[in-house]
Description:
Layout: H1 7-24, H2 50-67
Helix pairs in contact: 1-2
Amino acid sequence: MLHKITKDGIIQAVFLTYKALKYFFGIKKPRIAVCGLNPHTSDGGLFGNEEKKVIKPAIDFFKNRIKN
């Protein structure tokens, strides 16, 4: 099975959105929400584990990068 959702892909999408909001729209501290992929964000793994294994690590990576 091909995995289309990757940590790097999410990081790239969030970073491009952040840059656009900051530099093109002049928002000093952009806030970006990232939603879960599966219904009810997987219900603890019942419908998949992309939130835990892919999406959350990407968000954590980006949060740490913005703080530094």
